[in-house]
Design goal:
By secondary structure, the chain is mostly helical. It has helices spanning about 1-15, 40-45, 55-65, 80-85, 115-135, 140-150, 165-170, 175-190, 205-215, 220-230, 240-245, 250-275, 280-300, and strands at about 25, 50, 105-110, 135-140, 190-195, 200-205. The chain has two domains: about 1-110, no CATH class; about 115-265, no CATH class. The protein is globular. About 20% of the residues are buried.
Length: about 300
Amino acid sequence: MALQSSAVKFRRILAHFPQELSLAFAYGSGVFQQAGASTVETGNNMLDFVFAVDDSVTWHMMNLLKNRNHYSFLKYFGPKPISNVQNYGAGIYYNTLVPCNGRVKILTQNENVKLQAALASNLKSAVTAAFLMLPESFSEEDLYMQIAGLSYCGDFRMIIGEDKSKVMNIVKPNMLHFQKLYSNILEDCPQVVYKHQQGKLEIDKSPEGQFVQLMALPRTLQQQITFLMDPPGKNRDVEEILLQVAHDPDCGLVVHQGISGIVRSSSLIQSAKTTLTAGIKKSVTYSMKKMYKMSKGWLRKT
């Protein structure tokens, strides 16, 4: 019955949108239990979706026909300008407060080999970045806290609009989900000793070990670290700079600063786009909901 019920939810949600999706998933407090929130609160929270598509212009064209009322004033300009706006910042067309029934996790996922490889690579990159920012010995919870916090590094919304305990609230009730995602990666990584039963890990923090990890980071992050560490006029190559960072006692801090720079820029542009993609009224309503949620987090601590 549970499987059948989930299948019905999947069909009901996806039926609202064009079917040409490479990947669709739901996330956030409306899907996964967070610490400090009751089951009733989780069930009533907004449900967040991400849809990945191969051709955004075509998808928006079909969605305009199917769900024209989902769009802000940008609908009057057509699918091409909508897709152009999407390309700025994080490359996401963001909308909020769209009514839709059902609450699920992974909705659909096709057999796109390139997409599967990108998803797997993203998980490994998150682990590698976290390793560089952690000490030689740490717990599984420490690792998942670091990973879950990556997307919030440098995000100005963590200063105002988000509960400061957000990362901890995400990780603590969902340890099994994190283990399912990352345990195979940890077991296959030659640089880490993964004591699964004890929930403990030990990582190679030698300059040689850190250099290997730095070289495994995504190119965008490597370039950001290079930008931070390379004085004007020297023009050293990326490998030379990463070797210097690997020997730096503050290697983890440099990586953190690099991630923060990427997230900060992306989050500012993405937030500025919200008034265009969601519209001013819904943007203000959404922001007020966030502020209310943040104030509730403060009250729970006092």
